[in-house]
Amino acid sequence: xxxxxxxxxxxxxxxxxxxxxxxxxxxxxxxxxxxxxxxxxxxxxxxxxxxxxxxxxxxxxxxxxxxxxxxxxxxxxxxxxxxxxxxxxxxxxxxxxxxxxxxxxxxxxxxxxxxxxxxxxxxxxxxxxxxxxxxxxxxxxxxxxxxxxxxxxxxxxxxxxxxxxxxxxxxxxxxxxxxxxxxxxxxxxxxxxxxxxxxxxxxxxxxxxxxxxxxxxxxxxxxxxxxxxxxxxxxxxxxxxxxxxxxxxxxxxxxxxxxxxxxxxxxxxxxxxxxxxxxxxxxxxxxxxxxxxxxxxxxxxxxxxxxxxxxxxxxxxxxxxxxxxxxxxxxxxxxxxxxxxxxxxxxxxxxxxxxxxxxxxxxxxxxxxxxxxxxxxxxxxxxxxxxxxxxxxxxxxxxxxxxxxxx
Amino acid sequence: xxxxxxxxxxxxxxxxxxxxxxxxxxxxxxxxxxxxxxxxxxxxxxxxxxxxxxxxxxxxxxxxxxxxxxxxxxxxxxxxxxxxxxxxxxxxxxxxxxxxxxxxxxxxxxxxxxxxxxxxxxxxxxxxxxxxxxxxxxxxxxxxxxxxxxxxxxxxxxxxxxxxxxxxxxxxxxxxxxxxxxxxxxxxxxxxxxxxxxxxxxxxxxxxxxxxxxxxxxxxxxxxxxxxxxxxxxxxxxxxxxxxxxxxxxxxxxxxxxxxxxxxxxxxxxxxxxxxxxxxxxxxxxxxxxxxxxxxxxxxxxxxxxxxxxxxxxxxxxxxxxxxxxxxxxxxxxxxxxxxxxxxxxxxxxxxxxxxxxxxxxxxxxxxxxxxxxxxxxxxxxxxxxxxxx
Lengths: 407, 390
Hints:
heterodimer, A: 407 residues, alpha/beta, 17 helices, 10% strand, globular, B: 390 residues, 3-stranded antiparallel sheet, 15 helices
């Protein structure tokens, strides 16, 4: 356990100091850390899922607090929690099915089970009730109220004591952790493989002799464009340089190295060039639940220009970037202000920047991210395929549980 | 141009029928004689009882009046006598419903479900099937009595779905199934209050310090949201529209002023004029339709259009039991719900008056819906409805 504590502390430190760049790397490190937390966590016999969930939540809260702007951290923590709940549920239903078979064969056991004060409901109903705790609240469950029996299966099975059942219990203990770790490994693979999955779809969207515009530098976009190139599509790319970090320059260099005809333009020239562009493709930092996009600064401008000229605006995002929260003030709360030295040279401007010097001081604002509202986005391409912005809520319902939204 | 189809001829015929405008608030609901027989709609184009009741709620009333009204309603013995129906038959579900509906704080769907619960209580069925048939009949009667109220229809449908799914297969005997259904129906009133609180909590993040909120109509859910924000010491101000002909704005302004929230009253036509100083629009809903649009008091569509053209978010606060299986394609696609409108001057006889009480706002003008199922985008509504009904 102390080993895990130190790992967590070290990771929190790295996050706070923004040492890890990129949401994919952050997501992978977070998941690997959570995997160690889960495997080192000692779980009690009863209610082990709750113990795992509490442990992961505790670590998750620390991580999110260290870097609240990096939404991928919160996303993968919630994915892991969802995995735990799902595995727990499938084990419960399997256990109930097992118990049911044993009960049916033995009449005395049926009376015993009922004698404990277990409500006279069939196993199917209990499983359905447990399943409803996993689903978000819906119209169907509105009148049903809170099912009290979600944790009853474990206690009732511990009450009805036949040898075979207790043997089942201890194997159940090991099984939950094992299943969860398998699920987490799958998640890691998914995160690592998201670029390939997205790039596979490139050929459907990029056609011959097209002009693509992109902004800044995103590894997903790079792989996407190169995949299309490999399938023998010939097209041109305009790269907006993405001041003040000028990462567009790096992307342009990479694209030329792979044989694509590239043009570098300034951010201010986007509106001028947009009428000659067939499609805008950008990578997102995060995608919010309403379909809004958090991207590198400048994408809102590109999105508005694209809307004005009816150019499709395509956003590429791996599933670890999908955030279940609704943005209520994204320009401020989900943004990070970087050092002004990226914009201005401190030496030259030292007299203006000095606040104590008297009247009038120069303020420099250097935001990292931009928020694009959902009505400006034409298509999201994730590793599961292409989706409408208004479809995001379905993906979120698949990947996350409602109980984990507030950590 | 405003005659989009030849239906105006039909409308003219209906409008020619003189409809009495006198609706004294103290009068009890329509006498039981007309309810006992099978013609619940003697007038082909009735004044919408739903909007009448809302108007009664919104009238500037004193607490003594409220007590008087409730005492008048309590004349109906069904209300107190919960065990056995008075004088054998007829037990009128409509009277029961009306008695619940008069309470200003109770949501429409809750009144419907309580009325149906009373049907279950007084029913003498011995099997689940029989009970379901009785309930279906009662629910159809209720729905036919007031075809304009969407929450009523939605509440009845929801309850019927729930009863159908809580089948006796899960329970050993009929009586425990019946008591469980009854228990849930009775709890529904709490669910509705809880729903309002959940909605208020969900929307707190969206109200920031220093914001200006435009409100239309007196929705109890929106009022709860504003009340909770004020309790959380948020600083904001509210612009409320007058809301003719109900004058809901005046009542809302009074209530908000009591909570020390800065309020400004606007006439309905001043909405576009004030829209640029508004940060967000909050409205309630009488019903949420399958497309994700809402049906609300007349004027909501106008406000949503103006807000959309000026890039202001429009937030809708609605409980989930207001989701209805309707898909209006345009404004006239709804059941006509008419209200008497008083212009303070006599209207010349040849002049028509548009008396519709509500309009339909399409989903593309709405930003988010706050419901007790969570914060939803308009496209989620049809998903929820499909899950329930299919």
